[in-house]
Amino acid sequence: MALPQLRTSRYGYELRQALADHGLPVEEGTLYPLLRRLESQEVLQSEWRTGQGQPRRYYRLSPQGEQLYQRLIRSWRGLNDAKAEAAASTKEAGAAEAGASTAEAGGAEAGEAPALLTAFGRPADVAARYQPTITIIDPADSRTFLKASVIGVALIWVIGLLNAFQHRPASVGDGLLVLRDFYFSVGLPALIWPGILVVWFGAAAWARRRWPDTGVWKPRPEERDAVNRSGSASAVVFFAAGTAVLADPAGALDLVSGGRLGAPAYAAFAYDDDFLRLRGPVVLAVMIAGIALLTAVLIRGRWEPATRRAQLVLNVVTCAVLLWILFGGAVFRQAATDQTVKGTIGLIVLIVLADLVRRVRRQRRRVAMRAVPKIS
Question: How many distinct structural domains can be found in the chain?
Answer without folding.
Answer: 4
